[in-house]
């Protein structure tokens, strides 16, 4: 895959990304879409969701928007009818039966292009287990070198069942689409200390998928790699300036806005599996 070309295409195509997302992180998601070259629209009312989607290029659905279930379903069906990529973020899917069921309903009623979550969220959708503490991954689900192959197998089965690119993020990021798979390394520990890093990544996947609809796997890998590169850059800058988590959040979005295609190609740490 050509990460450089995939990233450059976002600025060229300027895809409109309809994001029905977590109210806690909606501003950050809009800003990261803009930073990557997309145009965000955050319509969450069921009375306009399908109409807005018909005029967009991609759709991001986030389980944090629990109040917008009908809007998500209507927008999802419209996206499928229009051939738009749909990216699902199962936030807290393993924290409650309700969230898990909503995630599974969306997967049943909407054809998703990609699904991105942490280890517990992806396990909840794939296996029906409720182990998440809020929106954080349970320590028992952490991906290590010892269980990496098992995690890849779980994601491969999930991808084959749903047809979606399965993206599991954490200390080690995994991207799987059928027989294709990659591990992506990088980021910074401070990414786990700010609200919204995962939601921003999902929005970034939506942006790149909207700009590269024929290569959903490449778009997902490029988005994960870009977030890891930018997280590393933001963390380094924060430590140099002796700043804290609020500054990290801002510098993360700054890094996305300044990331060049060539820089992504040089600094991405992607290993095909």
Question: What report would you give on this structure?
Answer:
By secondary structure, this protein is α/β, with parallel strands linked by helices. It has eleven helices and nine strands. The chain has a single domain, classed as Ribokinase (UDP-N-acetylmuramoyl-L-alanine:D-glutamate ligase). The chain has helices spanning 3-13, 26-35, 49-54, 69-82, 97-109, 119-127, 148-162, 197-211, 216-240, 245-258, 261-267, and strands at residues 16-20, 39-41, 58-62, 86-89, 114-117, 165-168, 173-177, 180-185, 269-272. It has a nine-stranded mixed β-sheet with strand order 2-1-3-4-5-6-7-8-9, sandwiched between helices. α1 crosses α8, α2 (26-35) crosses α8 (197-211) and α9 packs across α10 (245-258). The relative contact order is 0.16.
Profile the largest sheet.
Answer: 9 strands, mixed
Choose one word for the global shape. Answer: globular
Q: Assembly state here? A: single chain
The mean pLDDT is 93
Instruction: Report the β-strand fraction as a percent range.
Output: 5-15%
**What's the tally of helices?**
11
> Which strand order spans the largest sheet, edge to edge or round the barrel?
2-1-3-4-5-6-7-8-9
CATH domain class: Alpha Beta
CATH architecture descriptor: 3-Layer(aba) Sandwich
Total count of strands = 9
Unreliable runs, pLDDT <50, ≥5 residues?
A: none
Structural class: alpha/beta
* Overall tally of structural domains: 1
CATH topology: UDP-N-acetylmuramoyl-L-alanine:D-glutamate ligase
For the record, give the distance between the C-alpha atoms at the N and C termini, rounded to a whole number.
13 Å
Tell me roughly what share of residues is in helical segments.
40-55%
SSE string: HEHEHEHEHEHHEEEHHHHE
Rg of Cα set: 17 Å
Please, what is the CATH homologous superfamily? Ribokinase
């Amino acid at each position: 895959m050509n990460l450089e070309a995939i990233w450059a295409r976002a600025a060229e195509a300027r895809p409109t990304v309809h994001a029905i997302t977590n109210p806690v992180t909606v501003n950050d998601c809009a800003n990261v879409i803009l930073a990557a070259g997309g145009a965000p629209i955050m319509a969450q009312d069921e009375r306009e969701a399908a109409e807005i989607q018909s005029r967009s290029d991609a759709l991001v659905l986030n389980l944090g928007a629990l109040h917008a279930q009908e809007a998500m379903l209507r927008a999802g069906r419209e996206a499928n009818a229009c051939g738009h990529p749909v990216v699902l973020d199962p936030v807290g899917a393993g924290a409650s039966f309700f969230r898990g069921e909503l995630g599974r309903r969306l997967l049943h009623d909407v054809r998703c292009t990609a699904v991105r979550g942490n280890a517990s969220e992806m396990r909840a959708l794939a296996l029906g287990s409720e182990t998440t503490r809020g929106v954080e991954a349970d320590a028992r689900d952490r991906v290590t070198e010892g269980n990496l192959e098992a995690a890849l197998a779980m994601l491969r089965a999930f991808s084959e069942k749903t047809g979606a690119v399965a993206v599991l993020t954490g200390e080690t990021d995994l991207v799987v689409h059928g027989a294709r798979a990659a591990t992506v390394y990088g980021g910074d520990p401070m990414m786990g200390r700010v609200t919204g890093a995962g939601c921003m990544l999902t929005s970034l996947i939506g942006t790149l998928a909207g700009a590269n609809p024929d290569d959903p796997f490449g778009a997902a890998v490029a988005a994960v790699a870009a977030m890891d590169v930018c997280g590393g850059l933001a963390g380094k800058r924060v430590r140099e300036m002796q700043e804290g988590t609020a500054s990290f959040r801002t510098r993360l979005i700054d890094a996305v806005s300044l990331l060049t295609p060539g820089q992504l190609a040089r600094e991405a740490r992607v290993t095909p599996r």
